Amino acid sequence: MLAETSNQMKALALKLFEINAFKFGDFKMKVGINSPVYFDLRVIVSYPDVMQTVSDLLVEHIKSQELNSKHVCGVPYTALPLATIVSLQQSTPMLVRRKEAKAYGTKKLIEGIFNAGDTCLIVEDVVTSGSSILDTVRDLQSEGIVVTDAVVVVDREQGGAANIAKHGVRMHSLFTLSFLLNTLREAGRIEKSTVDAVAKYIASAQINSDGSFVGGDKANLDGANDLVRTRLTYETRANLAKSPLAKRLFNLMANKQTNLCLAADLTKAADILDMAEKCGPYICLLKTHVDIVEDFSDSFISSLQTLAKQHNFVLMEDRKFADIGNTVSLQYSKGIYKISSWADLVTAHTLPGRSIVQGLKAALEGEERGVFLLAEMSSSGNLIDDKYKETSVKIATEGGDVDFVAGVVCQSSNCFAFPGLIQLTPGVKINENVDKLGQQYQTPEHVVKQLGADIAVVGRGILQASNPQQAAINYRDRLWAAYTERVAK
Ligand code: S5P
Predict the structure, then answer these.
(1) Is the Cβ atom of 407 under 6 angstroms away from ligand 1?
(2) Do 364 and 215 belong to one domain?
(3) Which of 31, 54, 362, 430 is deepest in the core (most CB within 10 A)?
(4) Is residue 342's pLDDT more than 60?
(5) Same-domain pairing of 316 and 206
(6) What CATH code is carried by the domain that includes residue 290?
(7) What is the β-pairing status of strands 22-28 and 34-39?
């Protein structure tokens, strides 16, 4: 590879990681097991510059490998736009494979003009077992078209090349998973433990073209669970986070050794400041509900910010925004509270859909901020069901705003898989199970070890203790011990 191309490839690898075209974590795969790495190259259609670079490099690859053919055909659907650009750049006519034959009319499987005996180059985005390529090859061959080569953007190195070779098709990949891992590692974007976990998984999860594992059901899939979110340290997760606020908070938690959030639900500014002063050294996050403060003022906010700096904690306004984008944008930045001017983090419901995140983001003027989305609630009888929860997590992990979403407010470890997000879990108290208004409590150990909390929110457990500072120390110690036990397993 020429040095210039090699640099271009490395830059593209980093860019693909940045736009979430691949992620590390614990993901369910089509083949039924979990994988520590997940590719979604569908996102590149939203980044014309990435699209351009990928197709330029594909064309260069086709030329250097001398893959001359009469037609090109993309494997539906992700590779279709890529195949279109390759076709245009090379003036090679395209063929389009229908995934389902039309129920009416000509029942054609392959669209485009061709003759039996014509050659066709396959274009594909990501190859795992190679079965999608083989489906397309089969349909082309049934029309008499000759297929000998496939160019692909990423080879996951799980046996796809060998599987398609058995059917007489050579695979030419732009990237291997190893190259991507090494490039990210070199650039300091992932840790060695991530590289090792993925390498271990790839070595053990070789797949036959029918989707079964080489070695049968008993294949040793060791690496598959090594990137489970709750087993990773906060340091590791800081490196995997897409949101700058999540990175900052993970690092702060690791350095300060605390995963305690104080819910400062008091109605007098002086009481909140007093509590922040006493508990500041033991918390990573201080959460407010500013609309319950009776004597709110700008000087209250500046004092709170000074304490946050002095004791090194992050400020979250638990506003639970839930309106249309335009309204939340105003609620976030205007009015008496001007929340976006001082709160590092806010909370929001996903009820209005993805537009809530866009609305909040639109209010910002360059400040580094983040949002936690509510995917579950701790109150008994709340109306959130599995579908709502799943969609909330999708909003948090997919799309163009993932750099703004720092975490998810939820009550269970299986709520989301991506280790770059922070799980914030309220409903924590040592000596009580419920309050009189439907709040349900669990112990610090239970929320961290069983429910997967990364940060536990404690309000009245500290605020109403006879010695709040001592209570904060107790909660901090128990929560931190539970976390260290959790990651040591
Ligand atoms: O589901 C939720 C979400 C949140 S953010 N349940 C909650 O209790 N909260 C908040 O956590 C709530 O608004 C309050 O500020 C805190 C819990 O306080 P505690 O006094 O019950 O510990």
Answers:
(1) no
(2) no
(3) 54
(4) yes
(5) no
(6) 3.20.20.70
(7) antiparallel
Tell me, yes or no, whether 212 and 267 share the same domain: no
User: Has residue 221 got a pLDDT over 60?
Assistant: no
| Position in ligand 1 atom list of the atom nearest CA 287 | 15
Domain count, the chain: 2
pLDDT tens string 317-333: 999 999 999 999 999 99
Q: Which domain holds residue 35?
A: 2-227
The answer to whether 442 is a known ligand-binding residue is no
Tell me: pLDDT of 217 over 90.
no
Is 459 marked as binding a ligand?
yes
Could you give the CA distance from residue 238 to residue 2 in angstroms, rounded to a whole number? 34
142 lies in the same domain as 166: yes
What distance in angstroms lies between residue 457's CA and the mean position of ligand 1's atoms? 7
> Is the CB of residue 262 below 6 angstroms from any atom belonging to ligand 1?
no
For the beta carbon of residue 17, count every other beta carbon within 10 angstroms: 19
Q: In the numeric block, which tokens belong to residue 162?
A: 């060998």
CA pair distance 402, 20, nearest whole angstrom? 9
Q: Which residues contact 157 (CB under 8 A, 6 or more apart)?
A: 176, 177, 178, 202
Distance CA 393, CA 469 (A): 35
pLDDT band at 174 (very low <50, low <70, confident <90, very high): very high
- Same domain membership, residue 395 and residue 319: yes
Helix (H, G, I), strand (E, B) or coil at 418: coil
Of the residues 211, 227, 243, which one is the last residue of a structural domain?
Answer: 227
Domain limit, last residue, from 227, 249, 264: 227
For residue 339, the Cα-to-chain-centroid distance in whole angstroms is 26
Q: At what angle do helices 269-279 and 298-311 cross, to 10 degrees?
A: 0
The number of beta carbons lying within 10 Å of the beta carbon of residue 178 is 15
12 Cβ below 6 A of ligand 1:
no
d(CA 89, CA 81): 12
| Beta carbon of 328 within 6 Å of any ligand 1 atom | no
Distance CA(386)–CA(269), nearest Å, equals 39
Residue 29 tokens read as 């795969």
Ligand 1 centroid distance, CA of 354 (Å): 23
Query: With bands split at pLDDT 50, 70 and 90, how would you rate the model's confidence at 239?
Result: confident
This prediction's pTM:
0.73
CB distance 463 to 435 below 8 Å: no
Q: What is the CATH number of the domain that holds 150?
A: 3.40.50.2020
101 and 241 share one domain: no
Whether residue 46 is found in the same domain as residue 195: yes
Please indicate if the annotation marks 231 as binding a ligand: no
Q: Is residue 267 located within the same domain as residue 215?
A: no
